[in-house]
C-alpha cells in the first residue's frame, strides 16, 4: 500500500495540531525511491522554536502511526513555516510586522517594511512603510490587491524611523511573546 496522500495527511493532522496551538500550513508527499517523504509545514501565532518542532514531530508521528496510512516506508519531516514562504494569510502579515518585504500588486512592485494589519476593514488592509529621501512614508494596501509578498532577509540595521512607523516588530502576540526560531525535525518511518 502507498503512503498517505496529501489530503489524507491534512485531514488526520489538522485537529490534533490545532489543539496543541499550531496550524498545518502545508503538506507535501513525494516519492523518493523505495521510500517516500511526507513533509508537514506548521505555523503558529507565537512562532515555533526548534523544541516546538520536535514536540510536533512526535505528535504528527503518533497520529500517522495510529492511522491506517499504508505500509510503505517513508521519512517524516516536520518544519516551521520559514522566512521564505509567501505572505498569504492575515496571520502571516501580523507576524511579519516590522520586517522588510517585497510586495507585488498588479500595478507595481514595492519594497517596504510591513506595518500594522487592519482586519476590521473589508478587505483587510496592511500598512507598508516605504523608504524615501524625505523620510519613510506609510502606504495602505488592501490585501486583495496583493499578487505576491515575501519577507526579505536584511543584512543591515533597519532605519529606526521605518521601525517606528511600522509599529515595531511583531514580538508579542495576543496572549504572549512570539518565538521565532525556525527549525526542521525528521524521522524515518518503516510501516
From TrEMBL:
Keywords: Cytoplasm, Ribosome biogenesis. InterPro entries: Ribosome_maturation_RimP (IPR003728), RimP_N (IPR028989), RimP_N_sf (IPR035956). It is found in: Cytoplasm. The keyword Metal-binding does not apply. The keyword Plastid does not apply. It comes from the Bacteria. Its main location: cytoplasm. HAMAP family: RimP. This is Ribosome maturation factor RimP. The gene is rimP.
Amino acid at each position: 500500500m502507498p503512503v498517505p496522500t496529501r489530503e489524507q495527511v491534512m485531514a488526520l493532522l489538522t485537529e490534533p495540531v490545532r489543539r496543541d496551538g499550531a496550524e498545518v500550513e502545508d503538506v507535501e508527499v513525494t516519492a523518493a525511491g523505495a521510500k517516500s517523504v511526507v513533509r508537514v509545514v506548521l505555523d503558529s501565532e507565537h512562532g515555533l522554536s526548534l523544541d516546538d518542532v520536535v514536540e510536533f514531530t512526535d505528535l504528527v508521528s503518533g497520529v500517522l502511526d495510529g492511522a491506517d496510512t499504508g505500509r510503505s516506508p517513508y521519512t517524516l519531516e516536520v518544519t516551521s513555516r520559514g522566512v521564505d514562504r509567501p505572505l498569504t494569510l492575515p496571520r502571516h502579515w501580523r507576524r511579519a510586522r516590522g520586517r522588510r518585504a517585497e510586495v507585488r500588486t498588479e500595478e507595481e512592485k514595492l519594497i517596504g517594511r510591513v506595518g500594522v494589519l487592519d482586519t476590521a476593514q473589508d478587505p483587510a488592509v496592511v500598512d507598508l512603510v516605504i523608504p524615501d529621501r524625505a523620510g519613510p512614508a506609510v502606504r495602505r494596501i488592501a490585501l486583495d490587491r496583493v499578487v505576491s509578498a515575501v519577507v526579505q532577509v536584511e543584512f543591515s540595521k533597519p532605519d529606526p524611523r521605518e521601525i517606528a512607523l511600522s509599529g515595531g516588530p511583531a514580538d508579542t502576540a495576543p496572549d504572549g511573546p512570539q518565538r521565532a526560531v525556525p527549525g526542521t525535525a525528521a524521522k524515518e518511518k518503516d510501516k
